[in-house]
Design goal:
single chain, alpha+beta, Topoisomerase II, domain 5, Gyrase A, domain 2, Topoisomerase, domain 3, 4 domains, four-stranded antiparallel sheet, 17 helices
């Protein structure tokens, strides 16, 4: 190996890269992206405010050019781009970005429409009143100072932050591998919460929520529900749903208009209006005739005019669904605690603020005490000197210089060095009787102040009382009413909020295309008709199932792999009669080798109902339906053995009978009580014994007043009275339910029907027939049936569904 120069260091490249990346990540986390839990500021915000304070840009002083502030920050404290500094300062001046602005801007500082601020050479700024509270007592050794980037100056590590800035203004930022998004809150509520927590450290979150209601955004709006608020109060994470503040105005001509007066936080008004206009052009939202922005300096006002007879509530809810009139604010209360990122609940944030104030007040008290003690020491020397004024003057006059005079004063009168120096610097007018009285009064007041300051340092209760007293003054000075309302409900924007309730048909193809159509798309036809096109399938794709349901219902999707997914009826996109539909993988997070085999509409999850499941190999299972009442996606519905698939699912009530039918035309009827209820992930028990090559094609719950309808692949069908099927024991081979021939083909579907009902039959090529049950002959078990649907030579029946 070639020898290396002594100045060359051999390192492992992998270790070096890891260390370098970790150093970079921590630099971003601590030095840029995350706020300190104590003052709620990131370094750039802190440096801007400190620089303004050092430049004397108080609220009582005139505004100064923004470029001057940016230059001060860049040159002394923040060695980064001027754009980053100016953009940060601009945000702190925007009343739609900050709940309580920290910068008082003069000039164009941008708008809620997304307009950018004017260049820094044109705008001016100064501190706001509340900013002075963040910097209050910073000269009294209340916080630690650290060297700036080049070691020539010092800057505060944190600000005293007399107001709980992290909560009242919030914070957002993206670090390396983590991010923070803390919402703003109302200062009055937060201060009341601080005081309550000081008085009762064991305060429960539910009690705290009565004081701090939740986020209070600068743009107002409405928060839908309190569940998410409680979650982030407890865990530091949550998602709150925000809606715009709107009202519906009725006009004289029987028309209505929607007025938007407040927007969700961080929503761009101009982009929102463009989005609404695009939805109208694309006919995704119908019924809007005009859209105007009438906002002015008095407030926001966006007007949406509607056609005569249009339901404004439905239009508004569609806009909530498709635009940012409704948004989700994801909350991650991540902040730096002792330079380490931590996710904090709201009580933890408040406790860190209280502890910071305890530290600030303690350090300020110590500073004031030291200053008062030093002054009292000097005054004590003055008093002693005035008591011995003639001798003091004689010593001073007889000394050759000030050093000798100082030494003689220390030796003859036992003055300290500081006292002797102060006496030598005393002006002659202090020797008058009036000045003597002032010294005595000042000394007496200092003695009281020293005792008071010492008592604060000696008692945590007194220390906390000081914090309470001072923040109550801040509450009186800065408190205001909430801007964001909280609506006492938890929403998931159900169908009821979006569209009128209607009966619909849902079709699903073999290759996983699904669509929703209004039921009245199809007229009733006679038995033996050819039907009309119900769906245009892709090449080599066939229709698998058809269902009638309501747009209000939940739709449960059971897959061949034994898992279940859930949607609302309205969430299935509506398509035209000949349209293919939407790929179901766009709606459900199913696996690549997984396909939906059964779709079940559910109006509600009753506790007295069961889901009965049947598999291709004849296994049957029963489970309480409420075990599936969850938004969790991809639940295990049952456990399957190798080469078995779930083929059908039905609702039952534990007092009914079940029928299973096979491809080769056999059926078995047995009591549901023969199948005991098991857990969601269990396998089940044998329902029917199958012959070689046979498989279960369907399952029905017995209705004694109905008939059993069977449909074959070649469009033949028949009804058979239920009394022809005697009840057997579960697990038997069953009875003949169809005389299967080459003419009628294999059995594909069974249904319990009543002669007053209608059904819809759909073929693999997408031909759909709607017909009455009374049109289908009622015959015995061992018969071939009659032609119900006239199919093309290569077409086959895919599925049948009820018309409710």
């Amino acid at each position: 190996m070639k020898e290396l120069n002594d100045n060359v260091k051999v390192v492992d490249i992998e270790e070096e890269m890891q260390e370098a990346y970790i150093d970079y990540a921590m630099s971003v986390i601590v030095g840029r992206a995350l706020p300190d839990v104590r003052d709620g500021l990131k370094p750039v915000h802190r440096r801007i405010l400190y620089a303004m304070n050092e430049l004397g840009m108080k609220p009582t002083q005139s505004h100064k050019k923004s470029a001057r502030i940016v230059g001060e920050v860049l040159g002394k404290y923040h060695p980064h781009g001027d754009t980053a500094v100016y953009d940060t300062m601009v945000r702190m001046a925007q009343d739609f970005s900050y709940r309580y602005q920290l910068v008082d801007g003069h000039g164009n500082f941008g708008s809620i429409d997304g307009d950018s601020a004017a260049a820094m050479r044109y705008t001016e700024a100064r501190m706001t009143n509340i900013t002075t509270e963040l910097l209050s007592d910073i000269k009294k050794d209340t916080v630690d100072f650290v060297e700036n980037f080049d070691g020539t100056l010092e800057e505060p590590e944190v600000l005293p932050a007399r107001v709980p800035n992290l909560l009242i203004n919030g914070s957002s930022g993206i670090a390396v591998g983590m991010s923070t998004n803390i919402p703003p809150h109302n200062i009055k509520e937060v201060i009341d919460g601080v005081i309550e927590l000081i008085d009762n450290p064991q305060l429960e979150i539910t009690e705290l929520m009565k004081i701090i209601k939740g986020p209070d955004f600068p743009t107002g709006g409405k928060i839908m529900g309190r569940k998410a608020i409680k979650k982030y109060f407890e865990t530091g994470r949550g998602k709150v749903k925000l809606r715009a503040e709107t009202k519906i105005e009725e006009l004289n001509n029987e028309k209505a208009q929607i007025i938007i007066t407040e927007l969700p936080y961080q929503v761009n008004k101009a982009k929102l209006i463009k989005k609404v206009a695009r939805l109208v052009r694309e006919e995704k939202v119908e019924g809007i005739t005009d859209l105007r922005d009438e906002s002015d300096r008095r407030g926001m006002r966006v007007v949406i005019e509607l056609k005569r007879g249009v339901n404004p509530r439905i239009i508004l809810n569609k806009l909530y669904k498709h635009t940012r009139l409704q948004t989700t604010f994801g909350i991650i209360m991540l902040a730096l605690v002792d330079k380490e990122p931590q996710i904090l609940g709201i009580k933890e944030v408040l406790n860190h603020y209280i502890n910071h104030q305890k530290d600030v007040i303690t350090r300020r008290t110590r500073y004031d005490l030291n200053k008062a003690t030093a002054r009292a020491h000097i005054l004590k020397g003055f008093k002693k000197a005035l008591d011995n004024i003639e001798r003091v003057i004689k010593v001073i006059r007889s000394s050759k210089n000030s050093s000798i005079a100082r030494k003689r004063l220390k030796d003859e009168f036992e003055f300290s060095k500081k006292q002797a120096k102060a006496i030598l610097n005393m002006r002659l007018h202090r020797l008058t009787n009036l000045e003597r009285d002032k010294i005595d009064n000042e000394y007496e007041q200092l003695e009281k102040k020293i005792k008071y300051l010492q008592s604060i340092l000696a008692s945590e209760k007194k220390l906390l009382d000081v914090i309470k007293e001072e923040i109550l003054k801040l509450k009186d000075k800065y408190s205001d009413d909430r801007k964001t309302k909280i609506i006492d409900q938890d929403i998931d924007l159900d169908l009821e909020d979006l569209i009128e309730e209607e009966e619909v048909i849902i079709t699903l193809t073999e290759q996983g295309y699904i669509k929703r159509m209004p039921l009245d798309t199809y007229r009733n036809q006679h038995r033996g008709g050819k039907g009309i096109i119900g769906i245009k399938t892709k090449e080599n794709d066939t229709v698998q199932n058809i269902y009638t349901t309501s747009t209000h219902d939940y739709i449960l999707f059971f897959t061949n792999m034994g898992r279940v997914y859930r949607l609302k009826g309205y969430q299935i996109p509506e398509s035209g009669r000949q349209a293919r539909g939407t790929a179901i993988i766009n709606l459900l997070e199913i696996e690549s080798d997984e396909k939906v085999t059964t779709v079940m509409p559910i109006s509600e999850f009753g506790t007295d109902q069961y889901l009965v499941m049947a598999t291709k190999q004849g296994i049957i299972k029963k489970t309480k339906i409420d075990e599936y009442d969850t938004n969790y996606t991809g639940l295990i519905a049952l456990t399957l053995i190798e080469n078995d698939e779930l083929i059908d699912v039905k609702l039952a009530n534990d007092e009914q009978e079940i029928m299973l039918a096979t491809k080769q035309g056999l059926a078995i009827r047995f009591s549901e009580q023969d199948v005991r209820s098991v857990g969601r992930t269990a396998r089940g028990v044998k329902g029917i014994s199958l012959e070689q090559g046979d498989q279960v094609i369907g399952m029905e719950i017995v209705n004694e007043d109905g008939d059993l309808l069977v449909i074959t692949e070649k469009g033949y069908g028949k009804r058979t009275p239920l009394h022809e099927y005697r009840t057997q024991s579960r697990g038997g081979k069953g009875l003949i339910t169809l005389n299967r021939t080459d003419t009628n083909g294999d059995l594909v579907e069974i249904k319990m029907v009543d002669e007053n009902e209608e059904i819809i039959i759909i073929s693999e090529e997408g031909i759909l027939l709607r017909t009455s049950i009374s049109e289908i002959s009622c015959t015995g078990r061992n018969t071939q049936g009659v032609r119900v649907m006239n199919l093309n030579e290569d077409d086959r029946v895919a599925s049948i569904g009820y018309v409710d």
